[in-house]
Amino acid sequence: MKLLPFFFTFFWLLNVNSQEIAILKYNGGGDWYANPTALPNLIRFCNENIDTEIEPRPQTVEVGNSEIFQFPFLHMTGHGNVFFTQDEANNLRTYLLSGGFLHIDDNYGMEPYLRKEIIKVFPEKKLVEIAADHPIFKSRYEFPQGLPKIHEHDGKRPQALGIFHENRLLLLFTYESDLGDGWEDPEVHNDSEEVRLKALQMGANIIDYAFKN
Question: Is residue 88 a contact partner of residue 1, using CB atoms and an 8 Å limit?
């Protein structure tokens, strides 16, 4: 079992140049499948504007499955409960420490559940707010004020929170912003083109940063 992290690190290095995204499926009852048009729209935007070559239809992978190591970028969203077994948390930890990246976008309501599960993954680390001058806010598009506000829920300011390891951001949690709603087809939420563009540009920054770091 001690060889497992080494094996996955080696496996990750074989796939480090791939540009693929997967949706992270988790247990607990939360709707991990929310915003079905969001990622395909973001992928299309990235392929057309920041020179990526991402497969247009993202695959779905379960948090405890070794298949997550095939993808440099995982996206997770939902409204409700999130639950990781300790084996699932360990699998996700190894993935992230081996070079993977996880973006968690709170679609509204998952934050209190998620915080408890992140402790299982990184008991020794804390979610910290990411400063507005971090490269993720200017890798392709400039967001001098940090994370943009896309949808209003509880009147709170948008926050980009992260887990860092050796100065690398490996887990990003976007809270009170709802980027995914801004990525969806226009008729889903009736957002203006200006709002949708902000959401897509911020999403492109996240993908660009994850692929390069």
Answer: no
34: Cα separation from own chain's centroid: 14
Who's near 24: CB < 8 A, 6+ residues apart? 32, 61, 62, 63, 68, 74, 75, 76, 102
Q: How many CA atoms lie within 13 A of 76 on its CB side?
A: 29
Averaged pLDDT in 10-residue chunks for the chain of 213 residues: 43 56 95 94 97 94 95 94 97 96 93 95 97 97 96 85 97 95 88 94 97 91
**Is the separation of the CB atoms in 79 and 51 below 8 Å?**
no
Domain extents in the chain: 4-212
Architecture field, domain 4-212: 3-Layer(aba) Sandwich (3.40)
Cβ neighbors of 45 (< 8 A, separation 6 or more) are: 200, 203, 204
Q: Using CB atoms within 10 Å of the CB of residue 138, give its burial: 0 to 12 exposed, 13 to 18 middle, 19+ buried.
A: middle
With contact defined as beta carbons under 8 Å apart, do 140 and 208 qualify? yes
Centre a 10 Å sphere on the Cβ of residue 129 and count the other Cβ atoms it contains: 13
Q: What is the pTM of this model?
A: 0.91
**21-25 and 59-62 beta bridge pairing:** parallel
- Residue 177's Cα: distance from chain center in Å? 13
